């Protein structure tokens, strides 16, 4: 993926650690690990000789396999897993090599091995997400009282605090962490049911062998080892896509508030950063733009993952390949986005003076709700709304300050003194529970992080 303006998107960022999990060699080693664990489980259950399992286990190291033979066998058979099985059998030797892959089918090994990779990716992603949550908690606390304009439908609404805005981000991101944690019991599973999932080739010992395999790999045993069951993987893709939507919303908001017309936030840019080849003044929110781009790609994988759940008969190879692609890309993109979001939030510049100045742009109209509620007790809510709405319309059409128009309305002056009107239009008096909500969200977020650290 490339960032806007043609620059490599990861030019200043470290590798997220997830890409390396999906190289051909990393996958081969995981499949060898599963083959070794399967042999050990079968020996433990009495299906194959113990010395055969020991020989297979000692041989199931990628460095012991011949890369040229692997490549040649894969070219000959057109089958990634068959090349591994053949070479592992050869290295194990004539005496014990015949016990390799006993009673298993390719998907048993590959899916279980892929789950091991997914588990590692899950650990990386939730670790990054926890870092993001920690930074959000700090921002919510630090800016619990930082006044800014709340905006609805792209217009100023009522005052809030920046900490309140951050609290909403933290709340949503905490639910993403919760979803990712909740799906592990359904996702981290070992499968060893054989050709159609019935354990036919292993016989009555099959279910016990799968249980032992799962225990050895620290996975759950798949209750029904049908090769057509794929919804847990689609659930993972959907959970990551939903997280990406929250990240994109945050990134777009930061980028929007970094615009010159707002000037309320900014990414911290490295020395020498160039925003444009022709406009030297440009300070583009580059990482925010990349988060949005990555997020769109992540969400586009959801239809692919859902399509991949639909299998004909006991398995559909095309659907399995679709799911492999969706899961791999979703995990890589999730880590990419989180690294960028962590860096954006960690270096976020907050311009509280500009936030306060922007609250004054409407000449007090941002406090129209407060004025309405102050008059509602004597005028009734709807009549008070009409009075304040009229004053806001006059101010907007004439360019006069809302405060001045309101202070000259007899319906107002007969009920409120000039000093009361002035006090009423102070944005700091109408942020509701913004600060309280921000601090509570920060504390709740830290509790979530602490609980994970203790688990």
Instruction: Report the span from N to C terminus.
Output: 36 Å
Write down the overall geometry. Answer: elongated
Tally of strands:
6
User: What series of H and E elements makes up the topology?
Assistant: HHHHHEEHHEHEHEHHHEHHHHHHH
Average pLDDT works out at 92
Beta-strand percent range: under 5%
Unreliable sequence segments: 1-11
Main sheet strand line-up:
1-2
Assign the structural class, choosing from mainly alpha, mainly beta, alpha/beta, alpha+beta, or little secondary structure. Answer: mainly alpha
Estimate percent helicity. 55-70%
Radius of gyration (Å): 30 Å
Give a structural overview.
By secondary structure, the protein is mainly alpha-helical. It has helices at 24-44, 50-59, 67-77, 80-92, 106-142, 162-182, 184-187, 206-217, 231-257, 286-299, 301-307, 317-346, 352-359, 368-379, 381-398, 402-407, 410-413, 418-424, 434-454; strands spanning 147-152, 155-161, 189-190, 220-221, 265-266, 349-350. A two-stranded antiparallel ribbon has the order 1-2. A two-stranded parallel ribbon has the order 3-4. Strands 5-6 form a two-stranded antiparallel sheet. A hairpin with a 2-residue loop joins β1 (147-152) and β2. The longest helix has 37 residues, at 106-142. The two termini are 36 Å apart. Mean pLDDT is 92; it is low at 1-11.
TL;DR of this structure?
Helices cover 62% and strands 5% of the residues.
Task: Give a quick set of tags describing it.
455 residues; mainly alpha; two-stranded parallel sheet; 6 strands; 62% helix; disordered N terminus
């Amino acid at each position: 993926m490339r960032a806007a303006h043609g620059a490599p998107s990861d030019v200043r960022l470290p590798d997220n650690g997830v890409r390396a999990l999906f190289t051909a060699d990393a996958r081969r080693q995981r499949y060898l690990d599963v083959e070794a664990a399967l042999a050990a489980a079968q020996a433990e259950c009495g299906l194959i000789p113990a010395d055969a399992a020991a020989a297979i286990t000692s041989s199931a190291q990628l460095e012991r396999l011949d890369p040229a033979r692997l490549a040649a066998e894969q070219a000959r058979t057109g089958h990634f897993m068959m090349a591994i099985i053949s070479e592992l059998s050869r290295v194990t030797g004539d005496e014990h090599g015949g016990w390799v892959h006993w009673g298993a089918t390719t998907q048993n090994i590959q899916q279980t091995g892929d789950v091991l990779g997914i588990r590692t990716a899950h650990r990386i992603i939730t670790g990054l997400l926890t870092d993001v949550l920690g930074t959000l908690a700090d921002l919510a606390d630090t800016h619990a009282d930082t006044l800014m304009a709340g905006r609805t439908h792209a217009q100023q609404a009522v005052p809030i605090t920046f900490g309140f805005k951050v609290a909403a981000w933290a709340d949503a991101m905490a639910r993403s962490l919760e979803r990712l944690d909740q799906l592990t019991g359904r996702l981290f599973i070992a499968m060893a049911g054989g050709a159609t999932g019935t354990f036919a080739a292993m016989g009555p010992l099959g279910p016990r062998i799968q249980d032992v395999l799962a225990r050895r790999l620290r996975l759950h045993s798949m209750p029904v080892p049908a090769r057509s069951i794929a919804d847990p993987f689609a659930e993972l893709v959907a959970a990551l896509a939903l997280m990406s939507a929250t990240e994109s919303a945050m990134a777009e908001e930061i980028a929007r508030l970094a615009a010159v017309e707002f000037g309320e936030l900014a990414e911290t840019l490295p020395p020498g950063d160039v925003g444009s080849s022709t406009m030297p003044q440009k300070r583009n929110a580059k990482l925010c733009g990349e988060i949005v781009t990555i997020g769109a790609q992540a969400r586009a994988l959801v239809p692919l993952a859902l399509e991949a759940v639909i299998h004909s008969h006991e398995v559909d190879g095309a659907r399995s390949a679709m799911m492999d692609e969706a899961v791999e890309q979703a995990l890589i993109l999730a880590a990419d986005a989180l690294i960028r979001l962590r860096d954006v939030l960690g270096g976020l510049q907050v311009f509280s003076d500009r936030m306060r100045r922007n609250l004054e742009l409407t000449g007090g109209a941002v406090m129209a709700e407060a004025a309405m509620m102050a008059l509602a007790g004597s005028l009734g809510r709807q009549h008070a709304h009409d009075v304040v709405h009229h004053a806001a319309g006059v101010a907007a059409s004439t360019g006069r300050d809302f405060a001045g128009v309101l202070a000259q309305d007899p319906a107002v002056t007969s009920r409120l003194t000039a000093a009361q009107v002035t006090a009423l239009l102070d944005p700091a008096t109408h942020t509701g529970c913004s600060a309280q909500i921000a601090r509570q969200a920060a504390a709740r977020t830290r509790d979530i992080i602490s609980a994970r650290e203790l688990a």
